[in-house]
Amino acid sequence: MLDEKYLKSEERIIFALRSLYSKYGYLPYKMSKFEEYDLYAKNKEFLVSDGVITFTDTNGKLLALKPDVTLSIIKNATEAKGVKQKVYYSENVYRVSGSTRQYKEIMQTGLECIGDIDLYDVCEVVSLSAKSLEAISKDYVIEISHMGILSAVLEKIGGSEGFFAEIAECIRKKSQHEIIECCEKYGVDKNGANLLCEFVTVYGAPSVVFEKLSALGLEDSLPAIKELKSLCALLDGKAQISLDFSIVNDMNYYNGIVFNGFIKGVCECVLFGGRYDKLLTKMGKSGGGVGFAIYTDLIAGINKESKGYDVDVLLIYKDETPYKKVEDAVEWLVSQGKSVSAQKSIPEKLRYKELKEMED
């Protein structure tokens, strides 16, 4: 039986998350480090990073070190009416770091629900994202948006396709100054610009947010608002959630609920997810998809209990000490529930709780 006290912080987190997802019927998914480059080349906009590490295989095919897991899951998904494929994964992906612009190996844990999905599945995935963060830290929040509400606002004010792409970045930043400049650039009138400026400030508890949306002229009958209200009702009291419409994912892929997760002590978003039916359509698949990924690297040390030492016992023996005697001593200490490092001298950086020296 696995003794979790010997696991590293990130290993304990992954072990706990795997156990959580298995309880809800999600099956493990394992993929190769390599995938045909064509898969990523066709869906570059969906990738978090634009850098993909490529190399030529012995048969001449161009391969890539995987920068994403979701695309592979969709590619290999089977389709059947009324059926959903539920999988979880713990994989390392390879991307260009946003800060250093160097290639980086990133640890990810997440899940995907693909197929004939409905509001229950979306709610289950968002709920599991909250349970995932709660398993790491009680001080967390899931921020939720709906791409359909943003689409309704943009349709209301008008604008070209180029405007939609550019204004999305301004909304992410919540920059009212840049929103006004972008609207002027694309000929959107002052009323439209003011509506967008007010829209990006809508944030907080669901009850407050829905009142503000109504004040902005967005009717409750709007399908996206109805869906978001239903989701919030299902999650009420079960998760720490907040609504924030500055969460904007690529509108060519995402079409519904999108969400980010944060925990106290980490300044970056540690979890991101959403519904991506358009991506499945683009890849020739029917049905829908929803899922999330956690950057396990970012949260590896958040709940790490520092013992102040690496091993319980540092056992020092001499060259002439019989090896059987060393083995017996180590095994006896381990049987007492202690961790042991047998050494001939004290390692410079090893932290130990207790020092024992073997007699001649």
Summarize the structure.
By secondary structure, the protein is α/β, with parallel strands linked by helices. The protein contains 13 helices and 15 strands. The strands form 3 sheets. The protein has a 9-stranded mixed sheet with strand order 1-5-6-12-11-10-7-9-8.
Describe the structure in your own words:
- It is a single chain.
- This protein is an alpha/beta fold.
- The protein folds into 3 domains: 1-137 and 271-305, BirA Bifunctional Protein, domain 2 (2-Layer Sandwich), CATH 3.30.930.10; 140-263, BirA Bifunctional Protein, domain 2 (2-Layer Sandwich); 311-357.
- It is built from 13 helices and 15 strands.
- It has helices at 9-23, 37-41, 70-75, 119-136, 147-157, 161-173, 176-185, 190-199, 206-215, 223-235, 277-282, 296-299, 323-335; strands at residues 27-28, 34-36, 54-56, 62-65, 84-96, 103-115, 140-146, 203-204, 241-244, 257-263, 271-275, 288-295, 311-316, 340-343, 352-357.
- It has a 9-stranded mixed sheet with strand order 1-5-6-12-11-10-7-9-8. The chain has a 3-stranded antiparallel sheet with strand order 2-4-3. The protein has a 3-stranded parallel sheet with strand order 14-13-15, covered by helices on one side.
- The mean pLDDT is 88.
